[in-house]
Amino acid sequence: MTTDTEHFTVHRDGVTIPVTRGGAGRPLVLCPGLTSTQAELHELVELLRRDFDVFTFDLRGHGFSSAADRYSFEAFLGDFVAVMREVGRLSLPLAPLLAGHSYGADLILHYACEYPDTVGGLILIDGANPLPAPFITQADLPDFRTLWADVVTWHETLKGTPRQVLLTAEQILELNLELDVIRSGINIDIDVVGIGILDRYRTLDRPIHLIMATAMAGDSNEGRVPRHNRLWRAGMDRLGRERPDIVTSRLDATHGLVVTHAEDVARIIRTAHTPAARAAS
What we know:
This protein has helices spanning about 40-50, 75-90, 105-115, 140-155, 170-185, 200-205, 225-240, 255-260, 260-275, 275-280, and strands at about 5-10, 15-25, 25-30, 50-55, 95-100, 120-125, 185, 190-195, 210-215, 245-250. It has about 280 residues and is α/β, with parallel strands linked by helices. The strands form two sheets. The protein has an eight-stranded mixed sheet, sandwiched between helices.
């Protein structure tokens, strides 16, 4: 399905961020994850536009957003605040739903805690998980360095396209290690326990809907995959005990569910968040 689209640009901290708007219905802002772009999420975006007024954008250093001098959770979050500020100037009929995948889920959760009055609800897609322990341990570092090196090599073939990612493998790894601390509150390098993301959930009073993959790290029984899947489920169970009011939908999929199961993700969102679909069900 093709819809008319509008475009505007957000400028912040020397970074240029292109925003695309299309569709009709309740406003929804979709935040991609790390190493993902709005172009990669094209199928999901098109499906959502059938029922929502969808805003999409690219993180700094991704897609057609410009490169930056620094990449950090704080920097990405500041960019999202700037995007939302521009969206807020459009006199929308309702505060938008925020949907985010993976790293994007963490960004929208932190944003909603700081600016709750600008948010109609959260749809967290396989992210923002309050892990009871770091996802990446010292034993995992070699595998993850190889993984991100392979990802960067592949992205070299996408330079100049809407799917390009300009970060280095080391930058991506550092961002994931930083996110581990944000989620679990534990720094494996200095063995310090601090405030994790669960504290964010405790203070947030917006409606929250989780869409989770049943095999986040894949369905293999070899290597570190079972440990990562167990840890991911443990984080979700931990959140369920803390916030039993949160609605959770599970998909038999891996972490790439926004691409591999775009139709299922869109159906879940449509059923839960559009009046007509709720009435029909």
